[in-house]
Amino acid sequence: MVDTLPTAPPPMVQLNNQNYGRIFQFLPIPTILLGPDKRVIAVSKSFLQRYGLTQDKVEGHLCYEVYRRGKQPCPLSVCRFSAAMQGQQGLFNLHEYKDSRGHRVMEEVHLSPFTDESGKVLGVIESVRDISEAKRLEASLTETNELLGCLLNSMLGVVVAADLEGRILFVNHNAQRVMGYQPEELMGKTLWDLSPHEELRRLRRILDESNGPVTGVRSQVTKKDGEIIPVQVNLNYIYRDGKPIGTLGIIRDQRERAKMERHLSSARMQVVQSDKLAMLGRMAAGVAHELNNPLTGITIYGELLREHLPPDHHLQGDLTRIIEDAERCRDIVRDLLDYSRQGTIQLESLDLSQVVEEALSLTHADSLGLHVEVLTDWAPEPLIVQGDRQLLRQVFINLISNAFDAMHGRGKLTVRTYQGDEGMRCAEVGDTGAGIPREYLVKVFDPFFTTKPPGQGTGLGLSVVFGVISRHEGKISVKQTGPQGTTFLVQLPAQAPKTLLEFANTMHNDPEDEEIG
Ligand code: ADP
């Protein structure tokens, strides 16, 4: 079966050459037809209207006489007529001039070759399109965009706009400073490249629940180098016709703030700790003399009694216990006095690495028979501090002993000294013990806080450390702790603090001073 198309009804108007000529006249776009000699063969009414011309002023005239009212042809560099005569399509010229009212006019004159049935070019059809308004809009859009770009780039935070699928549509230049990305690098990436999925879901939830913009949400972003940094985010949906089409975030870098908060809380902790220790120091100073005499009495009389009794006397065991306990009490009093102002202070220039090394060899006995690997990393240059050698040595003895205790006979002790920031001399003592539980972190420097069994810990080791380091105007902190172990960090200034110098002077000038131990 052969399909037959329905036959079209006969056209109402029969097209002949005359009709074509009239159609040309009625073209709505200003148009002229040029012969090969650039003379106008036909002109549309719209063309005459546009330029306020009459047919006789156009037909038979050269194109540049019509357009430019000039006698000179357009320069060859801009005239596309010859190219169109050679059959090239899609050509256009730009005309720019001021109209009678002084307004700038821009026109695009499109040229297309006009051929006979054999394809021979007979002339060129030129249609004029007024693009003044489009150009004005384009210029004002460019200006608005530039202004908007400047505004967004001048904003303090990183501005990120994304569609609802998370594809990044825009970021401002601050992305480079905060996250290490050039804005162009982030085009085509998604928000998932900047923040973990879980975190983005949380932010989206917060935004959905808020029914409006949310401000000051604490979050984090991943930098180009993989570092995760704390940030604060202001968030909102981007709406079009009342419907959300994307999200807008303004991200503020919080690294400096977090650093300051850490400093503040550590300073606050140091103040609280110093207050506690100062109070305890005063108390210790008050009772030390009182306790020391009876303790000495108990020890001496106990020893005498033990000597008078036969070695196999049944009270020998009890007496030994009394003497040992009295000695333990005396040690505690000595520890207390170590960080109260009772010990004599001998200030000298010390190499911190040397002090730590001495402490390490003094505690060497603790490590004998243990499976503890000791790793050291000493600063290449001397780390000179002004301080009391004995007290500082005690600091590291306490830290190293605690590290050994934490590892229960097996692990790795790491001791490191180095030059820190702002002239601080640093020493670290790290272990591979079980770490300090979070809830104990605020207590470990408290006097008498211990988790060790009775008889094994006095809870004074870290208090002494704190007292000594504070008096040297240094800092002691738990650099890190967790199931992989704990690292304590000691930071000391190079110069002896004024208070310590004054104190050392008064101690040396005080004839009443006595060393207790
Ligand atoms: P003591 O050693 O007599 O208990 P310290 O003041 O030296 O007293 O220490 C207090 C507590 O801090 C310890 O009992 C322990 O719980 C904790 N601690 C100190 N150093 C470490 C460490 N390196 N690893 C784990 N916990 C520690």
Roughly what fraction of the amino acids lie in strands?
Answer: 25-35%
Kindly report the average pLDDT value.
Answer: 85
The ligands bound in this entry are:
adenosine-5'-diphosphate
**Strand ordering within the main sheet:** 2-1-5-4-3
Tally of individual domains: 4
Residues in helix, %:
40-55%
Specify the CATH architecture of the largest domain.
2-Layer Sandwich
- Biggest β-sheet: count, sense, barrel? 5 strands, antiparallel
Structural class: alpha+beta
User: Which CATH first-tier class of the largest domain would you pick?
Assistant: Alpha Beta
What is the fold named in CATH at topology level of the largest domain? Heat Shock Protein 90
Describe this protein's structure:
The protein is α+β, with helices and mostly antiparallel strands and 517 residues long. It has four domains: 18-129, 2-Layer Sandwich (Beta-Lactamase); 155-253, Beta-Lactamase, CATH 3.30.450; 262-342, Helix Hairpins (Orthogonal Bundle), CATH 1.10.287; 344-517, 2-Layer Sandwich (Heat Shock Protein 90). The protein contains 15 helices and 17 strands. Helix 9 (255-308) packs antiparallel against helix 10 (316-339), helix 10 packs parallel to helix 14 and helix 13 (389-407) packs antiparallel against helix 14 (461-471). The longest helix has 54 residues, at 255-308. The model is unreliable at 506-517 (pLDDT under 50). It binds adenosine-5'-diphosphate. Adenosine-5'-diphosphate (ADP) is lined by residues 398, 402-403, 406, 431, 433, 436, 444, 449-452, 457-463, 486.
